[in-house]
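User: Can you model how manganese (II) ion sits in this protein?
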Amino acid sequence: MDLYEYQGRQLFEEEGIPVPKGIYAMTPQEARKAADSIGYPCVIKGQAKIGHRGQAGAVKIAHDADEAEKLAAQILPMSVRGHKVNGVLLCEAAHIIHEYYVSISVDRTSRDYDVLATAAGGTEVEDIARQHPEYVKRLHIDPYKGFTLDDAKVMAEQIGFYHADNDQAAQILLKMWKVFSDSDATLVEINPLAKVGDPDDESSKSLCALDSKVSLDGNAAFRHDGWKRFADTAPADPLEERAQQHGLHYVRLKGQVGVIGNGAGLVMSSLDAVAGAAQDQGTDIKPANFLDIGGGASAEVMAECLSIVLDDPNVKDVFVNVYGGITSCQLVAEGILEALDKLNTTAPIIIRFDGNAAKEGLETLKAANRPNIIVESTMEQAAAAAARIAASMEGNGNTQEENR
Ligand code: GDP
Ligand code: MN
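Assistant: Here's the modeled complex, given as C-alpha cells:
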C-alpha cells in the first residue's frame, strides 16, 4: 500500500524526522488559506502516488496568495503519468544547499534490509545512479541485530554527508529505520533529504526531509487498525472497484485486447504476448487489462470476469489464457459458454487451454459451435490472433457496442 507524500510525512513527523511546515488542501481556496498561514515563498505540491512530480510540473513555488490559488487550480486537475492528483500539499519553501537521497527497503535477495544512499540526490537521482553507480552506497541492516544510533553513525560516515552534520544524518537514519520497522513498511524513501538554511550562516544549516515515499506492507494492516487514516479518498476506477468486490485481481490498462488468465505470472506473460504480437504485426494494439481469475474458475466467476472486461468500452476482443492445474479447463469451458449466454455478447473470445482437461474443454467449446469463439493451440498463436482481430476491428471503426 503506497502512501501519498502528505501521509508519509505524517509518519516522519511522529518519529521526529524534520520536515518543513506543511498543510494539505483539496481546493484552490483551501490552498490559498493554507499558503497564507505558511507564508511566502511557499511550495505547492500535487499529491499523486508517483515520483517525478517536479518534472511533470506538479511542484511549483508561489510568492503570494493569488499565485498560490492559481497554481493550485492548475495542479489539482492534473494527472502525473496516469496517476490523478488527489490534493495539494502546501509547504514552507526551504533554501536548498544540497540534496541527498536515502531509502530503506526490503532486500529479498540478501534477506535483510537495504539502505541506499547517495550525496547526489534530487530529481535526477536515477540518471546519476545509472551513469555513476559508484556514487550510490548500498548498506545493509541485519534484521536480527537491529540498528542502533552507533550503527547509524557508522553508516552516516560511510555514506558521506559531506556538507552536513553526520550526527544529525545518523539521527535521521535511525528514525527512518524506526518508521520502517514500527510501521511494517516495505519502503521508506526521502528524496531529497536536503541540507537547508542560509548558505552564509553555518549555524542555520540542517537536514530536512523535503519529500516522502512510503509503502506499507498490506499484510500487516491488521496490526495497525487497518491503516484507516491512510485510506485513499480518490475515487477508484469503477471497473477495478467492481472487480475488488468480487475478489478479482483486475487492473485496467489502456489497450484494446481484454486479457483473462489464471495465475499472475501467466497473465503477465499474456499481456507481453499480446503487445509483442501487435508489434510484430506493425499495429499499436495493446492489452486492455490484467485479470487473474485465480484457481477454480466457476461459471459465475468467468461470467463476472468477462462482464467486467467487456464493460471497458475500449475492448474489442478478449484473450482467455488458462493453464489447467487445479483448475479444470473443462469447467472453464463450461463457464465461458454460460457466461456468453448470460452476457449475450458477440465480441470475439480467443481461447488457449493447456494442462488439466484441456482436450475436453476445447472439445466442449468446439461442440458449442459459437461464431465468436476462436480456439488457438498455443499462447503465441492466440495472442497473435487476438491482436490481429482487435486491429481489424479498430480499422473498421467497429465499436464494442456494435459487437454486442
Ligand atoms: P518528486 O519530483 O515527485 O520527487 O517531488 P519532490 O517533492 O521531490 O519535489 C521535486 C523537487 O522540487 C525537489 O527535488 C526539489 O529540488 C524541489 N523542491 C521541493 N521542495 C522545495 C523547497 O522547499 N524549496 C526548493 N527550493 N525546492 C524544493
Ligand atoms: Mn522527490
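A couple of observations from the model: The chain has 13 helices and 18 strands. Residues 20, 43, 45, 51-54, 59, 91, 93-94, 96, 122-123, 191-192, 210-211 surround guanosine-5'-diphosphate (ligand 1) (CB under 6 Å).
User: Helpful, thanks.
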